[in-house]
Amino acid sequence: MRTHLEKIAPLRxxxxxxxxxxxxxxxEALLADLTTLGERLRPYITDTTWLLHDRVNEKRSLLxxxxxxxxxxxxxGTYPFVTSSNASALxxxxxxxxPAKTLGRVVGVVKAYSTRVGGGPFPTELDDATGDRIRxxxxxxxxxxxxxxxxxxIDLVALRYAAMVCGADSLAITLLDVLSGxxxxxxxxxxxxxxxEILDRFPPDARLLEECTPVYxxxxxxxxxxxxxxxxxxxxxACQSYLKSLQSHLGVPIEFISVGPDRRQTMRCxxxxxxxxxxxxxxxxxxxx
Length: 289
What we know:
four-stranded mixed sheet; five-stranded mixed sheet; 289 residues; 9 helices; globular; 31% helix; Adenylosuccinate Synthetase, Chain A, domain 3; 11 strands
């Protein structure tokens, strides 16, 4: 560590000087700080590939959580508006060293509306008061930058593609409470190209996607706040209808429904952890997860 610091410190000082900063770097103090931090991290550093394989052989349960959306996947997302890694469920194997055959159930986590951070095609974007309202109710602002996220109605074309690529066995619908108070709620079921062609499959070309406009299915909204609901039977009929339409269009059962940020505001289908029976998850009874 000392050798490394002594090598890079002069380079960083030159960069600071070019930027008009005459600061100095105390390599001894920095080394002491890093050594202290290193000792705190030491117990958590190991060969994680072997660790995970050992847990699999022990029949232990493992949970992998993605940090970015499927459409930011470097191979299967809206290139070039993507991140630098496989952000879909397909990234689990290269990211962990576990072969695909060891992986089990996939739960697709989906907002009840659509958002996008930064540039890139977004057919259902609402650049109006409705989009602003969704953004404010959903607190859709960057955690560190405070930058407003782009918001729009739920895009079922993109979701069908994401569910297919990720192999989703079931869905978790989050932020459903954000949609309370809207007179009308729309679902994008298809795209329409500039030439008038109707698409039901997500196009691989981001340039073509930029030209697409959404084809909407309209549903009545609900006025009631739902953040205190404990089961699906307590949700307004219009809300239940919205969920049933999502499930029907996507062909993937809804397993979880979240109506607030607290873990006690999440409901789960009690009959099966993963099922294809529509009557089980919607509008069948749910219970707290």
